[in-house]
Amino acid sequence: MSFDRSLKIAPSILSADFANFGQEIQAIEAQGADWVHVDVMDGHFVPNLTFGPPAVKAFRPHVKTFMDVHLMIAPVDPYIEAYAEAGADMITAHVEAGPHIHRTIQAIKATGKMAGVSLNPGTPLESIEHVLDLVDMVLIMTVNPGFGGQKFIHSGVEKTRRLRQMIGDRPIHIQIDGGVTTETAPLVAKAGADVLVAGSAVFKGGSVDRAEVYGKNIRALKSAVSAVL
Ligand SMILES: O=C(CO)[C@@H](O)[C@H](O)COP(=O)(O)O
Asked: Where does substrate bind (predicted)?
C-alpha cells in the first residue's frame, strides 16, 4: 500500500459520549473521520484514567477506518501485547515513558502493528532521532497530556516544521494532538503534519443531531486546512 500523505482527521473519543461509544464511533466515521484516536491513560504517567484493553476490544467492531491507540502509560512494555490483541491498528508510546524507547518500538512491531512514538511539549526532537527509521508515525503533543479541552501550545508549530525536515521523504506520519481547532489546524498542517487529532473541536455542540454537528465540525477543520495548503 502506498504511503498516504493527505490530511487525516482523527477524532479523540476521549471527548465522545461515554455512555454510547459504539454510536459515537459510527457517527464520526459516517461524517468524515479518517482515523479513530483512542487515548489510554493510567493515572500515573498522566493524571487521568481511561481505557483498558477490554474497552479497546469493545470499540474495535465499530471502527471501520483505522484505530490509533495512544498509550499514555508507564511502564508501557508489559501492556503492548494486550492492546495489540484488543485490535489496535497502530500503537503509540511516549519517549518519556521509560528508558528503552527502542525496545518498546521493537515490541510494538513484533505484534505486527504499526508503531508510533510520542513526545510531550517539553521533550526535544533529538530524543527520537535514532528511532525515526523504526516508526510509522511521530506524535507531537501540543498540550501536556492527560485531558481534552486544553489550550494549544504554540511551540509545537516550529517543532513540527523541524520534524518534517528531519523526516524528509521517509514514509512517516506526523500527528498533532492537543488544542487542535480551526485556528491551530492550518498552522500545524502547513508546518508538515498530516494527522490531526481533535477531541473538543469535533465533539463540541453535539447534544441534539449529534452526527450532523460532528460532520460540520470535521468539515470545518478540513476546510480550514485546505485553505492554506
Ligand atoms: O491525548 C490527549 C490529551 O492527553 C488528546 O487526545 C486530547 O483528548 C485532545 O483533546 P482536545 O485538545 O482536542 O480537546
From this structure: 12, 70, 146-149, 177-179, 199-200
